[in-house]
Design brief:
With 304 residues, this protein is an alpha/beta fold. Helices cover 37% and strands 15% of the residues. The two termini are 28 Å apart.
Amino acid sequence: MEGKWIAADGHAVRRIDWPGPTAGTPVRGSLLFMAGRGDAYEKYLETLEHWRQQGWRVSAADWRGQGGSGRFGTDDTTGHIGNFAEWIADLAGFWSEWAEQGEGPLVLVGHSMGGHLVMRAAIEKVLTPRPDALVLSAPMLDTFPEMLPLPLKRGFSWLMTRLGDPRRPAWKISERPGTRAGMRRTLLTHDDARYEDELWWREARPELRLGPGSWGWVRSAATSSSAMFRRGALESVDLPVFIVATDADRLVSPSAIRAALARLPDAEALIFGAEARHEVLREVDPVRDRALAAIDAFLTARLG
């Protein structure tokens, strides 16, 4: 069932509550999924159904300013946010209300930018009640180019927001600067049918279409990543964390993911190679099935 969650400032955020587990399937707990930048939960209905069949009560929601939850850029296809703190506040508010209706262990799952924001929320201890586990899919802990240090990314993006409207697009098309439109699927998945499924949803629901991020988004991402990697931040996460990612990712930084894994106190991971692209949960079946099986095994081992 789709509906709206109203944030503290009155902004309407779209949500979906998936049907409960099938008859005869014991309820394992409640799971909230948060998608990435430019994403919409429609892309992950197949995965939500997988978790339902595993016994989870599943929900998902947009981030404000994308999906079916409005826009803040200079046009309808630019993804803008003034500060990632706005999204973290939304996540904390939604989580608190959603968890009140939850049953059993509470699991928070984030893909890409969603994984970044889930990790920031865990670092800042703003999630009440405390999640029982976190699962991150290809988390955007830093962006490309990897060789450019975060202070330089932060300084350059700050300058670009001072030289013009921070709501203007930071690049022209696709998921990252310098990528031609025809190359987009080569960044996301090897599975043509699942890629075409996203395009079908964008045609069926034009409000889901989103292109480049704004310079404000770029500045906010660099600032937030810097905060995440400050001394003691990742070490303060007192939750079990599972990360599924790929060293072949060309949208988010694999080296940042490995650096975070080395610092998190209680973390496990499944890291793919060239067989997987950024959208691991929308990959070809051999990759996707292995990723989901690893997540299932982690949740079973940690939560019963």
